[in-house]
Amino acid sequence: MFKRLQDKWGVSTRQFWILFIVFGLTGTTTAALTRYITSWLGMDESTFWVWKVLLRVGMLVFGYQAILLTYGFLLGQWAFFWKYEKKLLNKLGVWSLESGVNDSTPNSKLQTPNSKLQTPNSQLTHIAIFASGAGSNAEKIIAHLKNHSSIKVSLIVCNKPGAGVLGIAAANQIPTLLIEKERFFRGDAYLPELRSREIGFVVLAGFLWKVPDALVAAYPNKIINIHPALLPKYGGKGMYGMHVHEAVIAAGEKESGITIHYVNEHFDEGAPIFQATCPIEPGDTPEKLAEKIHVLEHRHFPEVVERVVNRESSIVSREYKAQD
Ligand code: GRF
Question: Which CATH number among 3.40.50.2000, 1.20.1250.20, 3.40.50.300, 3.40.50.170 corresponds to the domain 111-220?
Answer without folding.
Answer: 3.40.50.170
